[in-house]
Every structure is written in structure tokens, then in C-alpha cells.
Amino acid sequence: MALTPDFLFALANPVALLGWALLVLAPRWGITRRLVLSGALPLLLAVAYTLLISGHYLGQHATEGGFNSLADVALLFRNPWALLAGWVHYLCFDLSIGIWESLDARRRGVPHLLLVPCLLLTFLFGPMGLLLYAVVRRFYAAPATAAATPLSASL
Predict the structure, then answer these.
(1) Read out DSSP for 118-154?
(2) Which residues lie closer than 8 Å to 124 by C-beta, 6 or more apart?
């Protein structure tokens, strides 16, 4: 079986989808904690991204495209391996944001039913979900931490 961009794309998507499904459907399950909330799945995607982007810049297409202009970015993403790296980048970072939203919501006491639309938007449209969660979290104060407690109050 040849490692093609299409084959790896077909592998990366279910990895990310598994993480999102666990965050939405089983947020307090032990498997979710060990596989997703620990950061294991995003780190797996980060490894894939590192290999893909390194392969691009060490390969024969290293001089094609770049990040200095929109035209350079478009040229970069004409290469299917670089395009796959970009896609895995999205999968990794969006899932990382979803994990942060889940952990922050748990710490603040945000009801899961309010978090789910944020997670779904983050999964589908990244920054839109983050924006919605930023609005939601404003209504739930972060609990005081021991470090934030004045010394005189603890005596």
C-alpha cells in the first residue's frame, strides 16, 4: 500500500473525528480523558504534520510556494503533500482548541449543552467556534485559584 496524500488524508480525518466525537458525546469518559483531554490525539496529528511539512521542505518541491504572499500560499498548496500538511495543521489546532474549550468549560462550570454548539462550530469552522465560546465563557467566572488568593486571606 503506497503512502499517498489521499491515503493519509483518509487516515487523519477519522483520528480528528474520533477526538471531536468523544469531546461532544462522552466528555467525562476515561477514554476521552486519556486519549483526547490528555492531548494524545493532537500530538499524534502534530507528529504527522511535522513529518509532512519536513518532507515538503526537504523534498524536490521545497522552493515552491511559501508564506510571504497570498500567491505564494496558493502556490504552496498546489502541491498535494503541502496541502495535506495544511489540512493536518487545521485538524491538530482545531482539536487543541476544542480540548481547551472543554477543559476551561469544566473549570468554569459551563453546562455541556452550552459547550456543544461551541465545539461543533470549532470543529467545522474553527475561529467561529472559538468566538462563540469566548462569548459563552464571559458569563461563567473562573474559580479562584490558590495562587490568586492573597496570603493574608489564607492565614
Answers:
(1) HHHHHHHHTHHHHHHHHHHHTTSPPPPPGGGS-HHHH
(2) none
All three cell numbers of 39, joined, read 492531548
30 vs 23, 27, 38, 60, 119, CA distance in Å?
A: 11, 9, 11, 44, 19
What pLDDT score does 155 carry? 45
Cβ distance 115 to 139 under 8 Å?
Answer: no
Q: Residue 90 corresponds to which cell in the numbers above? A: 487545521
CA 83/CA 88 separation, integer angstroms? 9
* Cell 496524500 belongs to residue: 5
- Global confidence as pTM: 0.86
pLDDT confidence band for 116 (50 / 70 / 90): very high
CB 98 within 8 A of CB 123: yes
**Tens digit of pLDDT for each residue in 31-71?**
999 999 999 999 999 999 999 988 877 877 777 878 889 99
